[in-house]
Amino acid sequence: MLGVALPKTIGIFTTTRAEFGAYIPLIQAINKVEELDYFLFVGGTHVVSEYGNTIDEIQSLGFKIKGTFDYLLNGDKAYLLVKSMGNEMTELAHIFEENDMDFVCVLGDRHELIPIILTAILYKKIIVHVGGGDITEGVIDEQIRHMVTKSAHLHFASCSDSVEHIKNMGEESWRIFESGALGLDNVVNVPKIQKNELDVLERDLSKLESIKAPFPRLSYTECVDILNKGGIDFQWGDDFGAPEETFIGEQFNQPVMVHRFPSAIKAFYMKRDPEDEKVV
Q1: Using CA atoms, how far apart are residues 250 and 159, in angstroms rounded to an integer?
Q2: Contacts by residues 152-159 (CB-CB < 8 Å, ≥ 24 positions apart)
């Protein structure tokens, strides 16, 4: 109809369950603005059965899915990750060719964002980055986040420090908004369970009430010693499973922070200990 402006459409791309949880309050807010609409594109682990087909959860929450992009190969070696991103570029070419978006919105710092950003640049889309300016030292997330920041036109940062980091990268102040962390909206909006409800369920809260910070910090090697002394046959270099984690936690009756894992069982991009290359 002449004289009626169409809503601006924001293309939202999600590849993991964790990141989609942060998107939920944003999509809910978009739904409340008549001038905005969204296209939700779901890919990555969402559409892989080994990760639970979490696309079903997205649909069960009532969010409309515009399209999917299935690209993951099974493995986390660099060769397979690069081939997966090549597959992703092919999938994205179809999505961008068939869907007219005004904005492309990405969140965070995962490597899957790079093909999305590159495709958005080639299709001359306005790029919105949520979560820029944060810091995670020692992993490739840092590089990827800053790459996305330098590609984006609009930045929504979680805190004032992140705003300053984005400014220091040369981005103009009028493009940067201190919007807060989307995950906090979920914390605030999730209905709270009242203590009297737990009493009705006869749940014992004494163990939870006794947990106080700071939590014990143990190296992986110290944990292996604890397991072996407890009669559990566990070899240095193996990865902890639920039984091992439970046993270690029971020795302290509270959460335990474990560091210095063997580099052989962790992703290639995790920072090696400069004093011992065998651990990260």
Answers
A1: 36
A2: 152/117, 152/127, 152/128, 153/126, 153/127, 153/128, 154/103, 154/126, 154/127, 154/128, 154/129, 155/128, 155/129, 156/128, 156/129, 156/130, 156/131, 156/132, 157/131, 157/132, 157/133, 158/131, 158/133, 158/134
Contact 38, 65 (CB under 8 A): no
Is residue 61 within a helix (H) or strand (E), and if so which, with residue range?
none
The upper half-sphere exposure of residue 232, i.e. CA atoms within 13 Å in the direction of its Cβ, equals 18
Per the CB < 8 A criterion, the answer to whether 71 and 44 are in contact is yes
* Residue 169 near residue 146, CB atoms below 8 Å: yes
Point out which residues pair with 44 in neighbouring strands. none
Q: Cα–Cα distance between 245 and 227 in angstroms, integer?
A: 10
Q: What is the C-alpha separation between 115 and 90, in angstroms, rounded?
A: 9
Q: Determine phi and psi for 121, rounding to 5 degrees.
A: -65, -45
> Whole-structure pTM over 0.85, yes or no?
no
- 214 cis-preceded (ω within 30 degrees of 0): yes
- The predicted-structure confidence for 199-235, as pLDDT tens digits, reads as follows 777 777 777 777 888 899 999 999 999 999 999 999 9
Question: Is residue 105 a contact partner of residue 130, using CB atoms and an 8 Å limit?
Answer: yes
Pairing of strands 67-69, 103-107: unpaired
Give the span between the Cα atoms of 23 and 156, in whole angstroms. 13
Q: What are 154's strand-pairing partners?
A: 128
**Long-range Cβ contact pairs of 168-177 (< 8 A, separation 24 or more):** none
